[in-house]
Amino acid sequence: MSAITGKDELKPNPGSKEAQDQGCTCPVLDNNHGKGVGGLFWMNSDCPLHGTNH
Question: What is the rounded CA–CA span in Å between residue 48 and residue 54?
Answer without folding.
Answer: 6
